[in-house]
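Support request from a user on the community tier.

User writes: "When I paste my structure tokens into the form, the page sometimes reloads and wipes my input. The last time it worked, I copied everything first. Here is what I submitted, just in case something in the input itself triggers the reload:"
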């Protein structure tokens, strides 16, 4: 992720084209998780579908090794994301099924993905000091193949049982608190547009090396791991709505720090530490709320809808919005827009997300 847009820039694409290509990934995420989540809930084969989608995602991503035209990359990323986003969402469901009686341990498992991210981003950051970034697709294909192999080792999750009354899925979706949470998820991911699309490019334009940029990305994930380690304690002491609002407020501050503080490395360091809130705390709390709002019977579709609206539609809108504002308004105002979006999400959370 930290080097993908740098790779696109090296291929000659401008900010608008980069935003459009990333939006395609987001749009695919709108459709895929819901489709695969519904199929998984009906068939009960979550683990097998994770394995299938991981394999197909690896094969599709390998298409980037054929050519690098705008149209071809758009097609490849659309197909790749259709399978990859489904694998991620379904695996959340598999994980929660294994943790049925201990859902607070979710973050202790999730942090291993963060450790993998740190290792890879530092490794690639050092590597791209000596080799051309055009090798990124080849290296990433290798990672996806290993992910698929790892899914083959995942045990079958226990069948979830519940004695509670089952509301129809449509009726669950009509609850104001569910609508509010999904809206907040959409806004939160929209606000990440300038960060995920242009953070690396932004820093490179201000003279930072790819190795240092990689370290900053890694620092953010180290902070994420830190919050994952202690979040289960916070969940016992504070209600979910207050933690959600706190994560949104700190995210807003983070975007302003990046927009105004790119010249000062200490500001960038502090901003990256706030990744603990803008991803770690937010995601951990959101997963717990989704688990509560959607019963085991609806868990797959609930996780899928959260992914589709947030990581799908939100990411797509954030990519397009930041792609257009980056060239017209500039970097600082693009991060201002991101901060304002978080403030809107705070107001929605305060008014409609139920305390727990």
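"...and here is what came back when it finally went through:"
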């Amino acid at each position: 992720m930290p080097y993908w847009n740098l790779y696109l820039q090296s291929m000659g694409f401008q900010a608008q084209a980069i935003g459009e290509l990333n939006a395609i990934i987001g749009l695919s995420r709108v459709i895929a998780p819901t489709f695969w989540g519904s199929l998984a809930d009906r068939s009960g084969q979550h683990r097998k579908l994770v394995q299938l989608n991981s394999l197909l995602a690896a094969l599709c991503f390998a298409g980037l090794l054929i050519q690098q035209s705008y149209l071809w990359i758009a097609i490849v990323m659309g197909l790749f994301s259709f399978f990859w986003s489904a694998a991620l969402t379904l695996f959340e469901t598999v994980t929660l099924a294994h943790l049925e009686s201990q859902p607070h341990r979710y973050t202790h498992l999730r942090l291993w993905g963060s450790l993998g991210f740190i290792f890879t981003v530092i490794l690639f950051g050092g590597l791209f000091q000596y080799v051309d970034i055009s090798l990124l697709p080849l290296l990433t294909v290798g990672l996806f193949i290993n992910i698929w192999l790892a899914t083959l080792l995942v045990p079958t999750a226990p069948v979830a049982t519940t004695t509670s009354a089952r509301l129809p899925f449509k009726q669950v979706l009509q609850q104001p608190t569910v609508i509010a949470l999904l809206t907040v998820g959409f806004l939160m991911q929209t606000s990440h547009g300038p960060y995920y699309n242009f953070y690396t490019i932004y820093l490179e334009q201000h003279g930072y090396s790819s190795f240092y940029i990689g370290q900053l990305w890694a620092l953010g994930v180290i902070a994420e791991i830190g919050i994952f380690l202690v979040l289960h304690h916070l969940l016992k002491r504070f209600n979910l709505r207050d933690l959600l609002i706190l994560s949104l407020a700190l995210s807003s501050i983070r975007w302003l720090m990046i927009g105004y503080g790119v010249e000062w490395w200490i500001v960038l360091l502090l901003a990256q530490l706030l990744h603990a809130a803008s991803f770690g705390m937010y995601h951990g709390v959101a997963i717990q709320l989704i688990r509560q709002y959607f019963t085991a019977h609806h868990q797959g579709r609930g996780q899928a809808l959260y992914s589709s609206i947030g990581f799908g539609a939100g990411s797509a809108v954030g990519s397009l919005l930041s792609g257009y504002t980056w060239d017209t308004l500039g970097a600082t105002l693009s991060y201002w827009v991101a901060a304002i979006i978080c403030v809107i999400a705070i107001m929605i959370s305060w008014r409609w997300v139920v305390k727990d």
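Agent notes: The reload is a front-end session timeout and is unrelated to the input. The longest helix spans residues 299-328. The domain at 4-158+166-352 is CATH 1.20.1250.20 (Growth Hormone; Chain: A;). Escalated to web team.
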